[in-house]
């Protein structure tokens, strides 16, 4: 028993080092995470350098990008760069909160259903399928319209509550394949409880899969949040990229040809989500030896 | 096969039940008083008017009855097709307002979903394992799937509509026209339909192409493909077999993506002020027309459920294993 435990950490260390070896050589992973990191830093640091509040009306409305207003100004003279960096913050926040909550629920449901099986699985699977079929945006519309409270955090919470089903299904299927492996049987025979087996034996063996699921949930949450903002149910106490798009179309930036108003927010959402997807493919190649290209 | 359909119908029935229950619960159990907020939004100063409006809403929701009775009467009204009256277009029933908008949404969603699925699958299958094509299709595909629907719609409206002036950017038909069955009107309808269709089509296209490409590569690595190529079968034939196997998960994927596509259609309609359900939702939110919002919600859920069921039937037709009750029946 002691010998076993001594070997395992070393083996894990080896696996980790191997993954790292391929990770730093994977172009997709590096580009994807690079783009996300640049935008994240911009969102974190940017607001410190712009002293104008993002929604403050300025003296020079509708001016195109210039040295003074890097991204130009809105019809009301608001500085678009200030809105952009603050909006990036909310976008990442909503992705982290929504993706995080969805990942936790998805893991709880997926592991329990996959490991326990039987009636528990039947019930949880039914629940998953029901939530899966209901269009998430429609539910969020109703909830947000009635709730009226619309902070970024609450928005993220409700997005998380509707996004988990496909993750739960995927994790359940993965758990099924691990459930009957020998090391799980060994743990069960040595008297480990369900929770311990799931956290110590099953979850670590699909950690890369879980991480990739989280990345996809993160991107999905950002997209659905931007749709909500665009319909007019966005946060009322913050700026977000979706709200910028909504304002731009609402105040006819299209007809006025103010491209600097609607291009940056959409481009940023596309860049973040697209980079996450590409990084995800890269991760898949790193963790799955079959997909590696040398 | 009977088991398969029984299971599916059970899930859909349960889903509809849950959706209706959620729809009933939200105004009643949400923190805050919806009646108070609706009355407040009407901006009235006279206390008698406020009291009258309060009584009207309380009566409308049936707040003075016990909860179980409210719930049963809610179902009763629903089964009679009574969704209440729209506040935005008072006294039009919500059902009529929705029925007027649905054809536009369907005309937009159905062709764009089917075409993007077919073309995307074709592209993906063709690009897989062809280096040059793969290197272009893949990045474009990822960018397209990551694009928010409304942003592509805005870009297309700006580029092809405002700058190039090729397409109108607002409405379902020209304001100077009356809806009739004339060629001129149909042409005008088509002209207004083109851009929203194109933006829905393009965003969905990327996802299908990527999915198909990955599935084809997976299938080409399987034993039967290797065996066939060892026998000297032409690669066209092997690809055709791979395609038939790869299409199955794409059909399931279509069912899973319906919610996202509908969401995309709603925001696209808002960009183009297209007179479908999306614009209806926007108007409902702007005018705090909660009956209209809830009616639209139920309608969208119902539509997605029906579409899911159609896909299930197609799946049974396409995959013979489900008919024999063999593996794959649970997919």
TrEMBL record, chain A:
Keywords: Cell membrane, Membrane, Transmembrane, Transmembrane helix, Transport
Subcellular location: Cell membrane
Coiled coil: none
Topology in membrane: Multi-pass membrane protein
GO biological process, one term: transmembrane transport
ABC transmembrane type-1 domain span: 88-282
Claim: Transport is one of the keywords in the record: yes
Superkingdom to which the source organism belongs: Bacteria
Keyword Cell membrane: yes
SUPFAM superfamilies the record matches: MetI-like (SSF161098)
GO cellular component: plasma membrane
Pfam families noted in UniProt: BPD_transp_1
Membrane-spanning intervals of the chain: 29-49, 92-115, 127-147, 153-171, 209-233, 259-283
Protein family per UniProt: Belongs to the binding-protein-dependent transport system permease family.
Protein name, per record: ABC transporter permease
Upper lineage: Bacteria, Bacillati, Actinomycetota, Actinomycetes, Streptosporangiales
UniProtKB/TrEMBL annotation, chain B:
Pfam families for the chain: BPD_transp_1
InterPro entries in UniProt: MetI-like, MetI-like_sf
Record-level GO cellular component terms: plasma membrane
Keyword annotations: Membrane, Transmembrane, Transmembrane helix, Transport
Residue span, ABC transmembrane type-1 domain: 102-311
SUPFAM superfamilies: MetI-like
Record CDD domains: TM_PBP2
GO biological process: transmembrane transport
Keyword presence, Acetylation: no
Membrane-spanning segments: 9-26, 104-128, 149-170, 190-210, 254-277, 297-318
Subcellular location per the Swiss-Prot or TrEMBL entry: Cell membrane; Membrane
Top-rank taxon: Bacteria
Membrane topology field: Multi-pass membrane protein
UniProt family annotation: Belongs to the binding-protein-dependent transport system permease family.
Protein name: ABC transporter permease
Provenance organism: Nonomuraea terrae
């Amino acid at each position: 028993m002691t010998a076993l435990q001594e070997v395992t950490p070393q083996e894990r260390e080896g696996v980790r080092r191997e993954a790292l070896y391929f990770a730093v050589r994977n172009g997709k992973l590096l580009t994807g995470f690079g783009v996300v990191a640049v935008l994240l830093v911009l969102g974190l640091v940017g607001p410190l350098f712009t002293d104008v509040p993002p929604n403050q009306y300025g003296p020079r409305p509708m001016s195109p990008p210039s040295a003074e207003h890097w991204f130009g100004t809105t019809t009301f003279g608001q500085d678009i760069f200030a809105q952009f960096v603050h909006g990036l913050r909310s976008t990442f926040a909503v992705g982290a909160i929504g993706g995080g909550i969805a990942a936790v629920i998805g893991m709880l449901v997926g592991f329990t259903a996959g490991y326990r099986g039987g009636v528990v699985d039947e019930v949880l699977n039914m629940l998953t399928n029901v939530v899966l079929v209901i269009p998430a945006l429609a539910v969020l519309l109703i909830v947000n319209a009635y709730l009226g409270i619309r902070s970024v955090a609450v928005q993220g919470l409700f997005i998380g509550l509707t996004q988990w089903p496909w993750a739960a299904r995927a994790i359940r299927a993965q758990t099924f394949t691990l459930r009957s492996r020998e090391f799980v049987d060994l743990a069960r025979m040595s008297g480990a409880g369900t929770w311990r087996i799931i956290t110590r034996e099953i979850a670590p063996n699909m950690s890369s899969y879980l991480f990739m699921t989280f990345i996809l949930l993160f991107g999905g949450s950002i997209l659905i949040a931007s749709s909500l903002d665009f319909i007019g149910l966005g946060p009322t106490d913050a700026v977000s990229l979706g709200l910028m798009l909504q304002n731009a179309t609402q105040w006819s930036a299209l007809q006025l040809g103010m491209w600097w108003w609607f291009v940056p927010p959409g481009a940023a959402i596309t860049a973040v989500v697209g980079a996450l997807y590409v990084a995800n493919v890269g991760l898949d190649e790193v963790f799955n030896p079959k997909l590696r290209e040398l | 096969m009977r088991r398969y359909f029984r299971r599916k119908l059970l899930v859909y029935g349960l889903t509809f039940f849950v959706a209706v229950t959620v729809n009933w619960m939200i105004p009643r159990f949400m923190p805050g008083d919806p009646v108070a907020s609706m009355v407040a939004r009407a901006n009235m100063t006279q206390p008698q008017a406020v009291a009258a409006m309060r009584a009207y809403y309380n009566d409308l929701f049936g707040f003075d009855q016990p909860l179980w009775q409210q719930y049963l009467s809610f179902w009763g009204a629903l089964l009679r097709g009574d969704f209440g009256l729209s506040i935005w277009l008072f006294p039009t029933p919500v059902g009529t307002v929705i029925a007027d908008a649905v054809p536009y949404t369907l005309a937009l969603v159905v062709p764009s979903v089917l075409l993007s699925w077919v073309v995307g699958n074709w592209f993906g299958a063709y690009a897989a394992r062809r280096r040059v094509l793969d290197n272009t299709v893949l990045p474009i595909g990822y960018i397209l799937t990551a694009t928010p629907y409304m942003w592509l719609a805005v870009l297309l409206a700006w580029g092809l509509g405002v700058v190039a002036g090729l397409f109108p950017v607002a409405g379902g038909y020209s304001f100077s026209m009356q809806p009739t069955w004339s060629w001129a009107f149909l042409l005008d309808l088509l002209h207004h339909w083109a851009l929203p269709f194109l933006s829905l089509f393009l965003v969905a296209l990327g996802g299908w192409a990527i999915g198909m490409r990955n599935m084809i590569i997976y299938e080409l690595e399987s034993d039967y493909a290797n065996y066939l190529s060892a026998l000297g079968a032409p690669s066209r034939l092997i690809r055709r077999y791979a395609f038939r196997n790869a299409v199955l998960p794409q059909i399931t994927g279509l069912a899973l993506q319906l919610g996202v596509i509908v969401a995309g259609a709603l925001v696209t309609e808002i960009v183009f002020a297209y007179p479908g359900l999306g614009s209806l939702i926007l108007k409902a939110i702007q005018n705090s027309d909660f009956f209209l919002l809830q009616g639209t919600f139920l309608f969208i859920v119902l539509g997605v459920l029906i579409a899911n069921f159609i896909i299930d039937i197609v799946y049974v037709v396409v995959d013979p294993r489900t008919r024999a009750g063999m593996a794959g029946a649970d997919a």
